User: Fold this.
Amino acid sequence: MGALAAVIIVIVLAVSLSSGGGSDFQAAVSRVGGLKEGELHRLKVNELGAIMVLEYHVIGEEGRWSRTPENFRSDLDLLYNEGYRCIRLSDLASNHIGTEAGYTPVALTFDDSSPSQFRYIDQDGQQIIDPRCAVGVMEQFKKEHPDFNMTATFYVLPALFGQEEFIEKKLRFLVDNGYDIGNHTVNHPSLGNVDDATALEEITGNVSLVQKYLPNYQELSMALPNGSEPKNPALLTEGSQDGVQYHFVASLLVGANPAPAPCDRSFDPMRLPRVQALDPSLDSGNCGICAWLQYFMENPERRYRSDGDPGVVTVPKHMADRVDMNKLGDMKLRTY
Ligand SMILES: [Zn+2]
Assistant:
């Protein structure tokens, strides 16, 4: 056992400390949500900031309820470059936000299941997803930016994206590729104008419609047609009829502002507001996606920014009294 052996031992020790030792340390930091105070300031962490739930309808010609594929793509580019990352609507409702530290969660939603949202086209005898439909644009974006965590919820009507022969294939593709399907009733009535039995029929009818193709699929949320909630608010959460049941964690309004953070006193998952995705030239109320993105650039302290740890809610000290302790559940509150 000479000097050479001693040198080898030293080298082995040094290598194990610098590799295995380092990753253990990082794992420990992420376990305790241990961003240092300086980092929290630098990243402007604020888990009481507002979160946008974006609302899309048609992807086609530009219009009040429509976005071109190019403009939809540029919305995604803008969101990505401004530090937004997708989350599932159900994770927003239940405050399971695992967005990377310093980034802002955003939820994408599509109403009415028009063919423009999901279309197959023939290419040399093969059926491919139209690169100009919403799913085509999103799948391409996902390939280029895996860290965007692409996901969206489709609030469907009986049309189910048209193309009868592809309905099951489309619904399966969505759930197999990280997207969600939500309830938008059968006949699109304003639920505030119908009796309870009709409201229940409209909602369970939609559940059955989807389960006809995906037998065990449970929709977790609904988009209220015309933003109108049923006279009986209990129907928003759960119901059953003829053996068809539902239990929703969220329901969505039509407009026109970002949602409060899930632990904010004013957060109500059954009445979540949305921000409409439309061209600024058509945004007469100045409350669409571009207006709100601009607002958050000018008022960065109003924007939700994650601490990277879904088990900890981190908020600036001066805002702490806005936290609803009942909504924290098992999560820890950290102020700085
Ligand atoms: Zn609708």
In short: The chain has a mean pLDDT of 91. The pocket of zinc ion is lined by residues 111-112, 184, 188, 225 (CB under 6 Å).
